[in-house]
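B., you asked whether I could sanity-check this one before it goes into the benchmark set. Here's the sequence:
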Amino acid sequence: MFKKLCLSSLVLSSIIIFKTPSSFASSITPQEDLHVRNHSDVIKVVKQVVSQQQTKSKSPSFSIENIETDPLNYTHYTLYPKYDKHLATDKEIKVHVNPKGKVILINGDFEVSTVRPSNQIKLSKEEALNRAFKSIKMNRKQASNGDNPVVQSNQAVINTDQEKYIYDIELITLHPSPSHWHIQVNADNGAIIEKTNLIQSADTIGTGVGVRGDEKPIHINKTSDGYRLEDISRPSTLSAYRLDTSTGIAKIIKDTDTRFDAPTQRAGVDANVYAGQVYDYFKNTFNRNSYDDNGSPIISITHVNQFQGVNTTNNAAWIGDKMIYGDGDNSTYLGFSGANDIIAHELTHGITQETANLDYNNQPGALNESFSDVFAYFIDFEDTLIGEDIYKYPSPKKALRSMENPTLYNQPAHMNQYVRTNQDSGGVHANSGIPNKAAYLTTQKLGKSKAEQIYYRALTNYITSNAQFIDAKHALEQSALDLYGQEAKQAVTASWDAVGVK
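And here's what the prediction gave me:
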């Protein structure tokens, strides 16, 4: 949504400014020793930095909205500006503190003066919610999301670009169609300021591999009327559903015996088995319990070949709290749930949503796609390809993307090839090739075991929602330094320098 001017001084004694149009984001390593002992100190540090970095009036008040302490005992504070008890959630700042209380990194949106909205809050939450449903032409009474709530959030906040109070609303539906809406409603007159369907899809341009009739052990759940394709062996329940296109309702896949081999069941079998592999990877490698680290169920819906009137046969997507998979066209592609790296890609979108929450436009969107590819690469580490297993007629050159050589699949591998377009949310699926290449180079230099820890730490602790490529580089450098020292940091720096992010 927002392009940002990136300002950094991670290792240099002076500040380097990288200019892009509009708005402002930055990452700073303090040149002086700043220490914090309590929450008040954190707020003072942020106000000091903001006042130094902006040319507008005095800095606003800030509120600490999240505090996390990682396994290295570093503390990560997330703050937002506020006015009259309402937060400006589009201006996020993070303060990172080492175990001794020293501030090691401050990053986020620094150019924000005292926030004074020009309107008033006249609408109630219910009135705003009704306006939101009307804007997407959806009957509120008919909307459903399985066992989960349709309305994920509805709060009065401040949109700093508009300088207005708004209701920030998030909706997730399974019926009448899968969707994940973010809608901003003017809190004064009910006008729709912005609405975005946050469906995040794996790029299907190219060729892929899918469900191949191979037998494999599966976890199922016995019930009074048979068996459900539901894995209850882990702290998080994994379930596979089949969409009935005639009704728009997804039902859990069932059978009367323990063998699930019908054509309509096979996509669900792969979806659940591979989701289990991805769950195990994140649990065993990072001790993460499901995409939200709170044991939420992992739901896969198969046979989703139409979405909002668009043919989605050759597609897969994360839609806020579940995944959907198309069947493939059966000429080039098989079912999209038949590749563990595709499922890893989609589930990582869920982790990104719950951590960095990268905006799905331009460079933040490309980073969103890239982090999904990076962890798919770590999970399916036998090659450097993404999506090679969904091709009906596989060959060594058939894949959706390559981490090692993005240009083989029409992606840039260097900033001098950066794609500038209004399509695909600013080229998120194309330009992800640049950070993908940097991740591949990092892994070659440091090895998988170190690279995956660096990337996970950056995603869950340092990356902010509007991060540009340079911000991701700095976050990864800091993570490498935290975990493995100066040599690892230099390897990260060299990898990103090699793709033109300097």
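One thing to flag: The chain has three domains: 6-108, 125-197, 221-498. Otherwise nothing jumped out at me.
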